[in-house]
């Protein structure tokens, strides 16, 4: 029997328990989507402020069979970060379950039932940790109550331990399976009756011994990624999309393509002029009996395109546009003190400036976008590797002219996401192609070329920093101009200025103890699709700021670590609003102030573990950077070696993270290691460039990702201990921003050469 079942209860013990539960029935407080009691007009933060909110209904997330198997629903997308293990593990720990008897079920898209299912912003655990604890604790009390009723003893005398409820006084015990039917007949107890375990009672949370729920299946190839979907009668498709963003089809000759063996149909798709949001780019789809035939059919198409307004986009020329923008005054997003006049009055010898460039970046997930759609009896089913199931459901429904309830989205495993798969345009394309095939299932696959050339790219940017220094070498004024096409251009016509949430990623909220700080934001247009990317705008902002602080330290003839600590000033907690940041990653500023003590500590920890200040051979150097992002504090120290050919070798990386309590430390460490590898890959070789509106890169030969031979020889992760009473920070993204500046600062320490433009690439190569 499932604990989902309900029925009336009749025993005296049960009546007493129900009487206690009913005592709360007369209260009229407002319950938020997380179930937490709040005032009706309270400001919402965190998960409560997300579409769908946070749901902690035990009957939604947890069931127990008569065989004792506990099934827990995972409502977030798994893309290697381990969330399909971590969230169910939290509920299982509070329940008192044996992990070997736990199964995980992936939730379909259903915001009303499961709450927000967006898997982005490093907030899955941050927003759902307490909810999943409540799910498990509620089920535990129901099992304990069922046992107490059966034994006719007070519920306070029984306890759920390792998949059974025991009565220590009599030595009796009952398995979860034996109690499931009785527990299912009980009403869900009120929140006031639920108590969470103490840290000492937990077996899985905070421990390193919990086996990943998908680990065996992933290793043995028995998992289901988006690209793995197979349905009876399925056709396969690829699409020739406009090579320039905003372009459209002028003409197509299908003759040769239709002669390719296996090609079934050729379908034209209407485009979506900017702002394209999550809509398809349009083009010509080739549907075939297999993917290879579809690809060969696409190659045989004779296509003529109208490139539209972005046909002249050239990334080299646009860099000059960005550079011109940051060299002129612009409207301020933060204006503290008298920055402009202080800079103007400073002697030329004490004024310093630098510009930093970061190109467009592609997500380049190992599994390119893939989706399968089948339409039957007026209903559509979607199988896709998506980070935003609810957006997928609503966009597919709109594209097909169906109601939201007529669309089902099955979330597969994701072979990487990094924000790309939050945009479900590929699922909409598959839906339109299924419709063109009279509802037959169609799997759409993006090739690697498609993925790189039609991505929602990370924005390109130029960051200009200026500072004046006093006699001790410390800044008296700090000016930062940041020019980058904004993500909001994907959603709103004419958007040409970074939004507050982008500026709140390490630009306006720089927490330095400087009297005069000004951040200006020039207007610049977007010429391609811009989307969320792992760490988003923290990457260019942190690269510039953390590189510039190292340059100032060198100018002041001071050790970079000591200088950075002096810039941060004494330990204190800062309201983000005092830094002109009203966003703060959507979190309550009272619970998540910018804590300088924690930022200082990760710097001190990382540098101590790395042996900062140790003497290194010629051609070697250490570089440091720190970042506050996704309400987590991270410092990185990178050691580099530059060989005789000018190649960069990374013998060692030390990363210290303070994210509050670590719920699944193994996954935290793996996320840090992955962020480090990705950060180095982006810094060393990541660049998407444009010529005549077209992306110049097409595959991993010219958009290189870090190979094993080039990875750090060792990555040391140092986690700052946290207690369960602390607020949780993000984990998946915060370790990426400090990597590029730490690397480039290390290169300077090793060679004396400053790297101000990424990727590093061949900038250090020795000339023949």
Helix-strand makeup class? alpha+beta
Give the count of helical stretches.
20
Report low-confidence residues grouped into runs of 5 or more: 1-40
Helix content: 25-40%
Strand content: 15-25%
In total, the number of strands is 30
Strand order of the largest sheet: 11-12-9-19-16-17-18
Multimeric organization:
single chain
Distance N to C terminus: 76 Å
Radius of gyration: 28 Å
Q: What sort of overall outline do the alpha carbons produce when their principal axes are compared?
A: globular
Let me know the largest β-sheet: 7 strands, mixed
Average pLDDT, all residues: 94
InterPro entries: Ald_Oxase/Xan_DH_a/b, AldOxase/xan_DH_MoCoBD1, AldOxase/xan_DH_MoCoBD2, AldOxase/xan_DH_Mopterin-bd_sf, N-heterocyclic_Hydroxylase, OxRdtase_Mopterin-bd_su_IorB, TAT_signal
Domain Aldehyde oxidase/xanthine dehydrogenase a/b hammerhead: 220-309
Protein name: Xanthine dehydrogenase family protein molybdopterin-binding subunit
Organism: Janthinobacterium kumbetense
Write up what this structure looks like.
- The protein has 768 residues and is an alpha+beta fold.
- The protein has 20 helices and 30 strands.
- The strands form nine sheets. It has a seven-stranded mixed β-sheet.
- Helix 15 links the parallel strand 21 and strand 22.
- The longest helix is centred in the N-terminal third of the chain and has 28 residues.
- It starts with 11 loop residues before the first helix and ends in a 17-residue tail after the last helix.
- The N terminus is likely disordered.
- InterPro entries: Ald_Oxase/Xan_DH_a/b (IPR000674), AldOxase/xan_DH_MoCoBD1 (IPR008274), AldOxase/xan_DH_MoCoBD2 (IPR046867), AldOxase/xan_DH_Mopterin-bd_sf (IPR037165), N-heterocyclic_Hydroxylase (IPR052516), OxRdtase_Mopterin-bd_su_IorB (IPR012368), TAT_signal (IPR006311).
- This is Xanthine dehydrogenase family protein molybdopterin-binding subunit.
- It holds the Pfam family MoCoBD_1.
- It comes from Janthinobacterium kumbetense.
């Amino acid at each position: 029997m499932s604990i989902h079942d309900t029925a009336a209860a009749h025993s005296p013990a049960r009546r007493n328990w129900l009487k206690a539960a009913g005592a709360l029935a007369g209260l009229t407080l407002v319950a938020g989507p997380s179930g937490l009691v709040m005032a009706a007009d309270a400001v919402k933060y965190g998960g409560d402020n997300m579409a769908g909110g946070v749901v902690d209904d035990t009957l939604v997330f947890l069931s127990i069979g008569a065989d004792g198997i506990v099934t827990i629903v995972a409502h977030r997308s798994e893309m290697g970060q381990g969330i399909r293990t971590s969230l169910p593990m939290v509920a299982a720990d509070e329940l008192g379950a044996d992990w070997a008897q736990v199964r995980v079920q992936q939730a379909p898209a259903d915001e009303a039932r499961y709450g927000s299912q967006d898997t982005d912003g490093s907030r899955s655990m941050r927003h759902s940790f307490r909810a999943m604890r409540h799910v498990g604790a509620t089920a535990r009390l129901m099992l304990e109550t069922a046992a107490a009723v059966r034994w006719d003893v007070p519920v306070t005398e029984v306890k759920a331990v390792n998949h059974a409820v025991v009565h220590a006084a009599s030595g009796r015990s009952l398995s979860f399976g034996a109690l499931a039917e009785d527990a299912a007949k009980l009403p869900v107890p009120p929140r006031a009756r639920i108590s969470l375990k103490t840290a000492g009672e937990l077996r899985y949370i905070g421990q390193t011994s919990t086996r990943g729920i998908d680990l065996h299946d992933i290793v043995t190839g028995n998992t289901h990624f988006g690209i793995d979907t197979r349905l009876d009668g399925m056709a396969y498709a690829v699409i020739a999309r406009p090579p320039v963003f905003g372009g459209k089809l002028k003409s197509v000759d299908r003759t040769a393509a239709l002669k390719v063996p296996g090609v079934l149909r050729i379908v034209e798709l209407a485009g979506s002029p900017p702002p394209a949001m999550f809509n398809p780019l349009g083009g010509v789809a080739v549907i075939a009996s297999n993917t290879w035939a579809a690809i060969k059919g696409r190659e045989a198409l004779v296509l003529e395109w109208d490139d539209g307004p972005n046909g002249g986009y050239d990334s080299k020329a646009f860099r000059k546009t960005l550079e011109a923008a940051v060299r002129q005054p612009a409207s301020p997003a933060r204006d503290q003190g008298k920055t402009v006049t202080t800079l103007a009055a400073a002697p030329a010898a004490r004024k310093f400036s630098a510009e930093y460039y970061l190109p467009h970046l592609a997500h380049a997930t190992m599994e390119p976008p893939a989706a399968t759609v089948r339409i039957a009896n007026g209903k559509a089913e979607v199988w896709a590797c998506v980070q935003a199931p609810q957006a997928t459901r609503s966009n597919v429904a709109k594209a097909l002219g169906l109601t939201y309830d007529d669309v089902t989205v099955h979330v597969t495993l994701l072979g990487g996401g990094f924000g790309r798969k939050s945009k479900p345009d590929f699922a909409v394309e598959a839906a339109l192609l299924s419709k063109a095939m009279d509802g037959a299932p169609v799997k759409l696959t993006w090739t690697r070329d498609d993925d790189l050339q039609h991505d929602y790219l990370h924005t390109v940017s130029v960051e200009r920093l200026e500072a004046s220094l006093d006699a001790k070498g410390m800044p008296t004024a700090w000016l930062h101009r940041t020019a980058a096409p904004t993500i909001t251009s994907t959603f709103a016509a004419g958007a040409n200025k970074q939004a507050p949430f982008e500026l709140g990623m390490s630009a306006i909220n720089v927490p330095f103890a400087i009297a005069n700080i000004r951040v200006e934001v020039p207007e610049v247009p977007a010429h391609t699709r811009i989307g969320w990317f792992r760490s988003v705008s923290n990457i260019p902002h942190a690269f510039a700021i953390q590189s510039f602080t190292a340059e100032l330290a060198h100018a002041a003839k001071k050790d970079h670590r000591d200088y950075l600590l002096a810039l941060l000033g004494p330990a204190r907690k800062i309201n983000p609003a005092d830094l002109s940041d009203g966003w703060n990653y959507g979190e309550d500023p009272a619970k998540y102030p910018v804590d300088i003590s924690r930022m200082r500590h990760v710097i001190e920890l990382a540098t101590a573990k790395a042996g900062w200040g140790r003497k290194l051979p010629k051609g070697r150097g250490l570089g440091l950077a720190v970042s506050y992002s996704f309400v987590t504090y991270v410092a990185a120290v990178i050691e580099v070696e530059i060989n005789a050919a000018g190649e960069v070798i990374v013998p060692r990386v030390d990363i210290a993270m303070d994210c509050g309590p670590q719920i699944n430390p193994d996954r935290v460490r793996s996320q840090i290691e992955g962020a480090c590898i990705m950060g180095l890959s982006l810094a060393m070789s990541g660049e998407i460039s444009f010529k005549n509106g077209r992306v110049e890169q097409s595959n991993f030969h010219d958009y290189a990702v870090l190979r094993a031979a080039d990875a750090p020889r060792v990555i040391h992760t140092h986690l700052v201990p946290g207690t369960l009473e602390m607020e949780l920070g993000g984990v998946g993204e915060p370790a990426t921003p400090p990597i590029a500046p730490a690397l480039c600062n290390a290169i300077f320490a090793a060679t004396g050469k400053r790297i101000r433009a990424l990727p590093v690439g061949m900038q250090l190569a020795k000339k023949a």
